[in-house]
Specification:
By secondary structure, the protein is α+β, with helices and mostly antiparallel strands. The chain folds into 2 domains: 200 residues, Multidrug efflux transporter AcrB transmembrane fold, CATH 1.20.1640.10; 84 residues, Alpha-Beta Plaits, CATH 3.30.70.3400. It is built from 9 helices and 6 strands. A hairpin with a 5-residue loop joins strand 2 and strand 3.
C-alpha cells in the first residue's frame, strides 16, 4: 500500500496569522474588482434574452469584437455583449430580446440578417442559439440563491448534531470563507455565472465540508484518548494524521478536474476552473480557517470537564499551556 507523509509533526496552526492576511487580501481584491469593474457577468439563463455563437470562415478571421459591435448597433441591437469564444473566428453574442416571449426568435433573425448584410451570406455560420425569458431567468436566480442558503442551514444543523456547536460554527465559518474566496476568484477571472457554475459552487461547498469533518472527527477521537492534551497540539496532530489521506484524495480530484479544464472544451471550462480552485481553497480552509477558529472558540468559551468549568484564558491564538479537552 502506498504510504506518504506518515508520522509527520508539522506545526500548521502557527501559520494562522499569515494565512488570515493572505485570504483577507484575496477577498478584498475580489471586492475591489466588483466595486471598480462592475458586478458579475451572468449567463443568458439568468438575465433572459438571446445568446448566439457565431463561427466565421477562414477569410473572415479578421473580424473582431469592435467591428461586430458596430455592425449590430447599426442594426438596432444596442448594448449587445460580444466575446471571443475559443478560436479567433468564434464569437458569442448576447442581446436582449426584441419583445415579449417571442422576442428571442425575432432577435436571432435580426442579428443573422445584420451579419449577412455586413460580411455576406456564407461567410459565417450560427453554431447555436439559446433563449431564456426574463421571468425564467429570475426564477433560476432565486432558485440558485435558495439552494446555497438551504445548504448552509442543513450543514449547520448536521454539524451541530454530529459534533457540537463549537465544531459546527467553525466549519460553517470555514465554508463561508470558501464561498467568498471562490466568488472573488470568479470575478478576477471574469467567469460567467451560469447554472453550471452554481453547481460547481455547491460541489465545492460539500467538498470543503467533507474535508473539515474528517479533520474534526479525528480531533474528537484524539480528545477522547488524551483528555489533558492541549487543544493546540490535538489540532496539529489531527491534521498531520489525516494528511496522507488528504493528499491522495485531493491529488486525485485535482487530476480529474484539470483534465476537464484542459480537454473538455469551453462549455465545461468555467465549472472546471471553479472546482480546481475549490479543491485548493477547501483544503486551505480546513487547516488554516476551521482549526484556528475552533481553537479561538475553545479559548473564549471553554467546555467543562468532569463537571468543572475550565478558565477561558486569553484568546490569543497562540499555543496554550493548557486547553480544555472534550470529555
Amino acid at each position: 500500500m502506498l504510504r506518504i507523509l506518515h508520522d509527520t509533526k508539522y506545526d500548521f496552526i502557527k501559520w494562522w496569522k499569515t494565512a488570515a492576511i493572505l485570504t483577507a487580501a484575496f477577498i478584498a481584491l475580489g471586492i475591489g474588482a466588483v466595486a471598480f469593474l462592475g458586478g458579475f457577468q451572468y449567463s443568458i439563463e439568468f438575465t433572459g434574452g438571446t445568446l448566439m455563437q457565431v463561427a466565421f470562415t477562414q477569410d473572415q478571421s479578421s473580424a473582431d469584437v469592435a467591428k461586430l459591435r458596430t455592425v449590430l448597433e447599426s442594426g438596432g441591437a444596442k448594448g449587445a455583449e460580444i466575446q471571443q469564444f475559443g478560436s479567433a473566428r468564434d464569437f458569442t453574442i448576447r442581446a436582449q430580446n426584441a419583445a415579449g416571449s417571442a422576442g428571442a426568435e425575432v432577435t436571432s433573425r435580426a442579428i443573422e440578417s445584420d451579419l449577412t448584410k455586413a460580411v455576406g451570406a456564407g461567410a459565417f455560420s450560427i453554431v447555436r442559439t439559446e433563449a431564456v425569458g426574463p421571468r425564467v431567468g429570475a426564477e433560476l436566480a432565486r432558485g440558485a440563491y435558495l439552494a446555497i442558503l438551504i445548504s448552509f442551514f442543513v450543514t449547520m444543523l448536521y454539524l451541530a448534531w454530529r459534533f457540537e456547536w463549537r465544531f459546527g460554527l467553525a466549519a460553517v465559518i470555514a465554508t463561508a470563507h470558501d464561498i467568498l474566496t471562490t466568488i472573488a476568484f470568479m470575478k478576477l477571472l471574469h467567469l460567467e455565472i451560469s447554472l453550471t457554475v452554481v453547481a460547481a459552487l455547491l460541489t465545492v461547498l460539500g467538498y470543503s465540508l467533507n474535508d473539515t469533518i474528517i479533520i474534526f472527527d479525528r480531533v474528537r477521537e484524539n480528545l477522547r484518548k488524551n483528555r489533558k492534551e492541549a487543544l493546540y497540539d490535538v489540532l496539529n496532530r489531527s491534521v498531520n494524521e489525516t494528511l496522507p489521506r488528504s493528499i491522495l484524495t485531493h491529488a486525485t480530484a485535482l487530476a480529474a478536474t484539470l483534465a476537464l479544464l484542459f480537454f473538455a472544451g469551453e462549455v465545461i471550462r468555467p465549472f472546471a476552473w471553479v472546482m480546481a480552485f475549490g479543491i485548493f481553497t477547501g483544503t486551505f480552509s480546513s487547516v488554516y480557517v476551521a482549526s484556528p477558529i475552533l481553537l479561538y472558540i475553545e479559548q473564549r468559551w471553554p467546555r467543562s470537564i468532569d463537571g468543572k468549568a475550565q478558565p477561558a484564558g486569553k484568546p490569543s491564538m497562540s499555543k496554550p499551556t493548557a486547553a480544555p479537552a472534550r470529555g
